[in-house]
Design brief:
heterodimer; A: 143 residues; mainly alpha; 7 helices; B: mainly alpha; 8 helices; organic acid binding (chain A); Globin domain-containing protein (chain A)
Chain lengths: 143, 147
């Protein structure tokens, strides 16, 4: 399910808008994920506050969104371009790769609430493919 | 037995009282056929599904979307007995329609996206969590008769 040129254009167009809300989108997605899929909280047991909108969630969410922005810039070579991030997730964080899909879904719901007119079915399928490719890139170094 | 908090019950009933079944049903079902095209395998008799524009304007897709929402409403009206409510539908999906049960959550995800688009800020993380729980119970009930 590789990205067509049309997919890449749709992702870049959507991200041009979404990345403007860099202070909120990532944090909202992360906060939602922790609430809607509580099993993901196991990766953040060292944080004092896991509720949506809390400081550690918003700060970390912004970091994650920066990672996705980086992935958009490397959309022509996600497997090679995300090697460092993959090493981080594989050797240090040891996040089970099934969770990438969960965060992806949470991010798409946030985008739907904030940019409903832009998140058309065609943009949705391109973005879903993109996030799946990012997940694959992040899993590259796992084994 | 599923335990619903008062907040969860109210949140689910509130969502279903606010949405237009024809609009949301058409939007969610057509989105599913577009975003996860392999789901089209179950709708060979629906006519033109060749591209997003065809799917979006297909009248059979629209009417079936409404059918799905009306079936979901049955669960909303009797949230303590969703498993029993869907026993027949589960048998239908497993024996007659032969739908891969992994597909149920694909439609669930598209429905979440459409409801989120409609409710916007009102689709708070807490409401989202309640809706996700509702969909998980619905999917689990539909899967019951498969084994």
């Amino acid at each position: 399910m590789s990205l067509t040129e049309k997919d890449k254009a749709a992702v870049k167009a959507l991200w041009a808008k979404v990345s403007k809300a860099v202070d909120t989108v990532g944090g909202e997605a992360l906060g939602r994920m922790l609430l809607v899929y509580p099993q993901t909280k196991t990766y953040f047991s060292h944080w004092p506050d896991l509720t949506p909108g809390s400081e550690p969630v918003m700060v970390h969410g912004k970091l994650i969104l920066g990672g996705v922005t980086e992935a958009v810039s490397k959309i022509d070579n996600l497997r090679g371009g995300l090697l460092e991030l993959s090493e981080l997730h594989a050797f240090k964080l040891r996040v089970d790769p099934s969770n990438f899909k969960i965060l992806a879904q949470s991010l798409m719901v946030v985008i739907a609430t904030m940019f409903p007119k832009d998140f058309t079915p065609e943009t949705h399928v391109a973005f879903d493919k993109f996030l799946a490719a990012v997940a694959l890139g992040l899993s590259e170094k796992y084994r | 037995m599923v335990v619903w908090t008062d907040f969860e019950r109210t949140a689910i009933q509130d969502i279903f009282s606010k949405i237009d079944y024809a609009v949301v049903g058409q939007a969610a079902f057509s989105r599913c056929l577009i975003v996860y095209p392999w789901t089209q395998r179950y709708f060979g008799g629906f006519g033109n599904l060749y591209n997003a524009a065809a799917i979006t304007s297909n009248p059979r897709v629209a009417s079936h979307g409404k059918v799905i929402m009306e079936a979901l409403e049955k669960a909303v009206k009797d949230m303590n007995n969703i498993k029993a409510t869907y026993a027949e539908l589960s048998a239908l999906h497993s024996e007659k329609l032969q739908v891969d049960p992994d597909n149920f959550m694909l439609l669930g995800h598209c429905l979440t996206i459409v409801v989120a688009s409609q409710l916007s800020k009102a689709f708070t993380p807490e409401v989202h969590a309640a809706f996700q729980k509702f969909l998980a119970v619905v999917v689990s009930s539909l899967r019951k008769q498969y084994y």
